[in-house]
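This part of the workshop introduces the protein records we will be handling. A record pairs a protein's sequence with a compact description of its fold. Comparing a sequence with its tokens is the quickest way to learn the format. To make this concrete, we reproduce a full record directly below:
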Amino acid sequence: MRGPLGAVIGRYPSSDGNTQMGGIIRHNRKCRDIVFLVIFIAFWVAMIVNSSFGFNQGNPLRLTYGLDYKGNVCGDKNAKPGLRQLELRYWPNPNQVYQSGLKGSEFKLANARSICLLDCPYASEDQLNWVCDYPEGDIHLSMDEWIDRNYDYYEFLTPEMRNSSLQLQGPCYPVIFPSVNVYWSCQYIARSSNISLRHWQQMGGVNINEDIIIDKTIHRSINSRSSVLKRYMADIGKAWPVLIVCGGFLPLFLSVIWLLMIRHFVAAMPWVTVALFNVLIVSVTMFYYLKAGWIGNNAISPIIGEHDQYVHIFGREIHHIRAVAVLMTFIMVVAVLTSIAIVRRILMATSVLKVAAKVIGEVQALIIFPIIPYTILAIFYMFWFSAALHLFSSGQVVQNDCNTNCCAYDLVSKRVNCDRCCGYSIHYTPHIGVAILFHLFGCYWATQFFIACSSTVIAGSVASYYWARGETSPEIPFLPVFSSMKRLMRYSLGSVALGSLIVSFVESIRFMLESIRRKLKVSSTTPHSYIGKAAFHSSRFCFRCIEWTIKSVNRNAYIMIAITGKSFCKASAIATELIINNILRIGRVNVIGDVILFLGKLCVSLSSALFAFLMLDTHRYRSAHNKISSPVFPVVVCWGLGYVVATLFFAVVEMSIDTIILSFCQDSEEHQGTAQYAPPLLIETLNDQNEMQRLTQGPH
């Protein structure tokens, strides 16, 4: 059994037997959970090493652009030859594209000859156009001159080269089919130009297959899962200004405004929060409907630039955004109905928020303090996102071993080369996947760690306020926020590292189990019996309950760490015992307050998502170089960043309420149901809302 917390919290007897107040929350502390602090530091070292591997091996251009026949990434200015602005990948040999699309064919599209161009070539109506290899050897043209000539130097070819070109072995290839820019790849339209084809046949060129397979083959490659995932990651890199504005500055501004409004307009804030939440979730859902093409004519399109209005191409992204729109519709309906259901209990939330408002009014530095962890997290996220883009694009460019006929004319050796003529691809080793998973886990652990540090500092500041009898006591340390920060840095970083590690570990296991569940669902191996289904879904529910319980216990453990300076496990035990003994006192008051705070966080994050939609809908992100494939990932990332920022700032209110209530319950237990150290303003607020009776009323 634990004893009274008075000696630890700040009320301990002096040598003459009198109780002194000079040691508020600063008595008898020492470093705790040092082993886990060492583990956390080692983890950061591993994160730096892991990220350096990505920076060394990765190239974010690979996420957007393809490889040419030399193994260069299109658009890479450091390639040989320089491919600056030559971002489009084009397959000049239509027969190779056709062959790669045949069922059972060993020849793959990755082995077909491809080249990087400024724009997709077009078939002329009065002559035969050509696309030739990069100028080298006896072709004395610069890259700029080659581009100005529309990639055509057929007139400079020797008879041997011309004969090779008529065999579709280069160095020049005829433009027979029109093509359209689909995500920086020129997709054939299986509708050949009659005039170009006639010219080709009159020149004695080999037969060219005109089947629709050439259209579907490239389309299938562009819409493969790996290609779509790469484009989603590239979208995050292209939309970095949106992430900074909508994921950084906007939630910072909105969170500070929300805290100030809680301070001055606390009675109206629950109503404003619920109403604003409903408006925002409906607005975000409508934007998804807009981009899904269900409202208006502003659906996302995989085609870049101007194109024939009769050409309609759909990518996998449109199906994803429609699925998200359906999901958002379901969430919107549930959220609106839930908000209606809690309307009658909003008055209780108002009384609880008044407690926090009074604390913020007395310890005003709490409003400004979250800017410190916000700045640290902002720097971390900039580093993390940059490293993530490089890790996802890391790998080694290797030439394929296709063992098929891919002969092509080599301008340097001046002959047709049938050796090592296969295409190039990026080879990903298993350790890259492990590095990416480690990087993702590191992001979550670091985020939880900084949020936990912020919560512990806030709890320590509020506890100082409570146990010093509120604003009437002269015993509050000068600038209690910075005193709490000092105690955290000196004694409790290891405990916070342990708590954040437990949350991250449990969340990671839940994520892996959810991934396994989805794979089983796809492979139709989920249990079919009622017992099996019940066990299957019950396990998911139980795991979510465990996750929620751990997060709740962690939050209260951080409060007890701030108050007592105990280790994480000891503080968790104290907090758990205190909660169990006062479950009715804490639960009835705090649940609705937590719901309002959660809705407030969602208001901030949904505002970030809404403004992200508006920014991504501008011309900058809908055409040419910066076009994003889909707004889904940037919007979701902005929503996530907005929620993290809101969590940092809303923790001021959340932790204030929890710390005050836990301290009040402990104070009541130590003094036979009468709180001796509750500040007068707290007692006044609780009496005004008739909450004192609820708090002190034990189970009958």
The first helix runs from residue 6 to 9. The first strand starts at residue 12 and ends at 13.
